[in-house]
Each structure stands twice: as structure tokens, then as C-alpha cells.
Design a protein that fits this description.
alpha+beta, 3 helices, binds zinc ion, YceD, Putative ACR, COG1399
Length: 174
């Protein structure tokens, strides 16, 4: 969806509010593809404020299905954040040093889908757990250990711990 914001840019104190639907059915990033299971329309406000600033604001509220970081079970995860962008206006033009990095504003055309995609990306949860004490999966047979125990020998050390162990052993030899 493209919104023409020229009427706001060229007119002091003018604002417009657009109801924006998130069109994404799933969110694709370098982390993978995640189904969006719930999404609320966004009231996106575009305003010419403080005698020379353009402000784009709104609240994003959606839920995505994201695998648990430990056991990989899908976890419905709520993603909720505010968009709040400000640009300086000079002579009815948008002027900002960072403008070159901004891909969602081309002239007076605001590409809402690109804006929202970028904002979801920076607000994406770093880590999702199905529950705080998720037991994860067995490294040997792949069983989900929240659902029961397997009979595997899982005494082998974490590779990072093994490296530390090696260092200790070397010290002992000296
Ligand atoms: Zn889990
Ligand atoms: Zn196992």
C-alpha cells in the first residue's frame, strides 16, 4: 500500500490517519519464514508538526508462530510495538541525513508495507521459549524432553565446555 503524503508535507499542522491492514501472511527474514496468525489493522498517523517536522506514528499488534529456541515447538508469540518516525521538513521537502538508508519513503510516496516490514524486523524477539524451563530436545535422538524422557546417554559435554576442559588438562600437564 502506497500513501501519498504530499498534502501533509506541504501543509503545516496538517495530519492524516490511514487505517492500514498488514498484508503479510507470513514474515520472511534470514531467520526463516514465520506464519502470522493474528494481526490488527494499524491506525497510521502522518502529521506535519512543530513547524517543520514530519511524524509517522502508529501501533503494530500481531501474533506470529515462532519455534521455541530450545525444543522447536511452535509458540504463538505476540509482537506489539509503536512506530514513531520523525523527519525534518525544509522548503516542503523531507530532509534527513539518514534519508539514503530509508527505503519506504520515495519522494512523497510512503510505502507502508516496507515501513511495517522493517519495523517488525527490528522488533522481532531475539529468543522465544515455549516456557521458561523448557527442557529442549535430546541431542542424541531428537526427542522433545518436555514430553518425556528417552534412554539416551547424554553425558557428553557441550563442545564449548569440552574446550575449557582441554585447557584445564593442559595446565595440569605443565
Ligand atoms: Zn520449548
Ligand atoms: Zn534421546
Amino acid at each position: 500500500m502506497i500513501i501519498d503524503i504530499s498534502s501533509v508535507v506541504t501543509c503545516e499542522n496538517k495530519s492524516l490517519t490511514e487505517k492500514v491492514q498488514i498484508e503479510l501472511e507470513s514474515f520472511v527474514s534470514r531467520l526463516g519464514e514465520f506464519p502470522i496468525i493474528e494481526k490488527a489493522p494499524i491506525d497510521l498517523q502522518i502529521a506535519n508538526i512543530d513547524g517543520g517536522k514530519l511524524r509517522i506514528s502508529g501501533t503494530v499488534d500481531l501474533a506470529a508462530s515462532i519455534p521455541c529456541s530450545r525444543c522447536l515447538e511452535e509458540v504463538p508469540t505476540r509482537i506489539h510495538f509503536d512506530i514513531d518516525k520523525e523527519f525534518r521538513l525544509e522548503n516542503s521537502a523531507i530532509n534527513d541525513e539518514e534519508m539514503e538508508d530509508i527505503d519506504y519513503l520515495i519522494g512523497f510516496d510512503l510505502d507502508v508495507d516496507k515501513l511495517i516490514y522493517g519495523e517488525i524486523l527490528v522488533n522481532w524477539p531475539m529468543k522465544v521459549l515455549c516456557k521458561e524451563d523448557c527442557k529442549g530436545i535430546c541431542k542424541v535422538c531428537g526427542m522433545n524432553l518436555n514430553k518425556g524422557d528417552c534412554n539416551c546417554q547424554r553425558t557428553e559435554l557441550d563442545p564449548r565446555m569440552a574446550a575449557i576442559q582441554d585447557v584445564f588438562n593442559k595446565f595440569k600437564e605443565v
